[in-house]
């Protein structure tokens, strides 16, 4: 045997060839691997001898037929599991599929409108060659730095045909559905290929990684966060580098995956890098001897990845951090979001055992329920770690999961909304890159760790050889049902939202708005009023709007700390208050002049107020006091203000 096969050189989990724990003292690891031809092989794994035992001539002739049959059987297994995941995703999104344009998540409507706006921007990038990383189509004239706002170009550009044919609302629900099912399937394929032999083990692990309570929480609002189908392959390529015979090639492959993920969600990419680093450190801390064989290929691969990915992402990252409307650090509204300790033991709101009212003080909001495993699963996860504590991979996974669970508590550690102590995140929040992280989302890493532990536990239970194997299988299935049934996914809660006005869909606005002018929805678009963004998205951003929901530097000064929305608008805030309360304010000439100045700054052509807008009558009276009478056209009130804002007049 060569040195590669005689000494342990893998700092990660046992591969699919290994049913025994990934520890150097396990005598069956190298010898039993080739015995099971059902297990897929990985040509890049040097831990298996390159010279196999030669079978007899008769056996040789039978191998191709048997191998083809097994490959076909595994393909059917994969198709069946993928179909199950897709059906589950359709179940979760069923209520929005009934009317994609007319339904939205029940509590926060801003994020879906923002994503639909970004999907429409991808159409303009493909069809019109528009600059991908910055736009003036909203928040005019300051614009928005799209690289700093997760413009999901890697998702939006492939979805351009769907967006053109059916609209951005349909593209949004397609992305949510495929994000859940695709993430589960990706983890299933990686686990079945490299970590476990039992299809049920891989399916359970993939299921939890794709449909955990944290993923369901984000599904209503953040398709960029739940689209994690590249992460299993990024993790695997990192681990391959620790024993690669071709580190430059493997580093280049990793760089391509990293680049693609950067255009889906950079925060999730950062989480993946941090999780890989903590996991490898946990492995090396237990077995430092592995470092001798791993450091050369790992170093060469990481350098190659950094150089190639750095070259590919250099300009987009320059725009993000130094381009127009770049900001440094998150808004104060979200940078201290943290999980409550009790959140780890409660079921998530969008699950069978969930209760929104009970969870109200355990998470920053319902779109950030990044823990919520429930008591049964939490206890099962602890039990798995205790049971399999002799396995190196289990100990390393446990360290990784606990480490990020602690970070997810944020700057102030609390129990049932009562502050206990200061958390370690307080010492890290001001570090570069980490200052743009929402700490509660570290719980997403813990969710993946639990999914991997479940896969390993099922694999080990299925491999036991007691007198009554059926009893063991039944007990394993019962344990999984007991742990996972309370957090089984339920259809996402939806509410109706106002349709895009006929005035917009019938293109009547084109008679008023020129290419360098804006259409001003009433109330002015903001974090709490995003219907105007949906109007623009429905036209593939053929007209500009002021304001909107996005992250930008405070007061529009590039380089300042981030905040939601652009420059404060006094009149915009006043109209938002009228829309909320229905109370008409008393106006004076100063406020009229201020509104006229803002309209000139926005280069407004028309103001548009839907007839069915909440508190439409108080809003109409307020706008008429500011700029004069309007007129009804189709289903909106229109105020033509071009004579007021034309700078040549």
Could you outline the blueprint of secondary structure elements for this entry?
Elements: H1 3-6, H2 28-31, H3 57-92, H4 94-97, E1 103-105, H5 110-128, E2 134-135, E3 144-145, H6 153-156, H7 160-166, H8 168-194, H9 199-211, H10 213-219, H11 223-226, H12 231-241, H13 247-262, H14 266-286, H15 290-322, H16 374-387, H17 392-407, E4 412-415, E5 418-422, H18 425-428, H19 443-463, H20 469-484, E6 494-496, H21 502-505, E7 518-521, H22 531-538, E8 551-553, E9 562-564, H23 570-581, H24 589-602, E10 604-610, H25 616-627, E11 631-633, E12 636-640, H26 642-645
Parallel strand pairs: 7-10
Antiparallel strand pairs: 1-6, 2-3, 4-5, 8-9, 10-12, 11-12
Shape: elongated
Strand residue content? 5-15%
Main sheet characteristics = 4 strands, mixed
The residue fraction in helices comes out at 40-55%
Q: Which structural class matches the secondary elements? A: alpha+beta
Radius of gyration, in Å, reads 28 Å
Number of helices: 26
